[in-house]
Amino acid sequence: MINRVRPSRLLTWCQNQTRGYRGVDVTNLTSSWRDGLALCALIHRQRPELIDFDSLNEEDVARNNQLAFDVAEREFGIQPVTTGKEMAARAEPDKLLMVLYLSKFFEAFRKSSLNNNGLSL
C-alpha cells in the first residue's frame, strides 16, 4: 500500500531539503522541478557523493532530470515517472506525477539522519 502524503506537507519537506542550493527555489510541485536542479539537490542533500551539484547547468534541463532519474532509480529504487527529454519538452511537469514521484523520495529519506526537521506527513 502506498502511503498518501498531503501535497502541502510534501512541499514543505521538499523546501526544507533543497534550501540553500544554487538556482533552486521550490515554491510548488510543478514548475519548480522542471529544470532538474531541485531533484538533483534533493538527492545531493542525502548522498552528496552521487551528484556533483556544482557542475550542473540549469539550462541543460534534459540532462539534469535524466541524471536525477537515473541516480534515484539506481541508488534508491525509485522508478522514474518520465524522461529527461519529456521534462525539457513540457512547460511544467504534471502535478500528480510529481507528487507521486516526490513522495517516493520522502519515503526513502524519512529515516535518514539528515532528515532532521521532524516533519511528519
UniProtKB/TrEMBL annotation:
It comes from the Eukaryota. Gene3D superfamilies: Calponin-like domain. Keywords: Coiled coil, Endosome, Phosphoprotein. Its main location: other. Pfam families: CH. GO terms for cellular component: endosome. PROSITE patterns: CH (PS50021). The keyword Phosphoprotein applies. Residues 4-107 form the Calponin-homology (CH) domain. It is found in: Endosome. InterPro entries: CH_dom, CH_dom_sf, F-actin_Monoox_Mical. This is Calponin-homology (CH) domain-containing protein. It comes from Poecilia mexicana.
